[in-house]
Amino acid sequence: MIETCPAFIEHSLVHFRQRFEWDCANFEEICKAAAFKESTWTIDLCYILKDLGIKHKYLTTTFGANPTHIGKKYYKCFDKDQTRVNQKFQNAESDGIPIEIRSVDYEYLIMHLANHGNIILLTNASLLYCDLCKANKLTMDLRSCFGLKSAYMGHYIILCGYDQRIRKFIYRNPAFKNKVCFMSFEAIESARKASGTDEDIVLIYDKKTVI
Known about the structure:
8-stranded mixed sheet, alpha+beta
């Protein structure tokens, strides 16, 4: 247990269910103005957060569009996206968007949740489930029994708390209706560090603090 943090934290959030498979960034008009239409990258979300005046920091293991994703089914628009994405990375510092190239562990996430606010995580949706309502749990168990590898499906979730007593994160999934989900620290680590995510994290600073 991380003794410097409370054993339990849950940040209250207003939950909006996404309307399309691609609209985790929210409104159609915002997507059109940002020029990414239906292909949303984490750097696009950061620019939207900046425009909305939301203090944040972007952590990733890759600066720019990762060329190893070329040919992957999920990144079918890679060739079209990479120029826009790379340009935004190049302009990020001057545009006031802090980016750090690093990998962090779940204890880092707990510390942020306890001291600063919520976290946007890019995950492999194929590895997400809920220990509370058992959503997707059966599918995960069947894959495990037969040794099947999950296909990569990029999806953003919001980490909004944790319970160190049972070693689980609390998160909200915009694909679901208004509810919280629980997954173990280890399971969230697997979902957010899966190949294809570049371990993208957006730290939200809801509390008054200095980045």
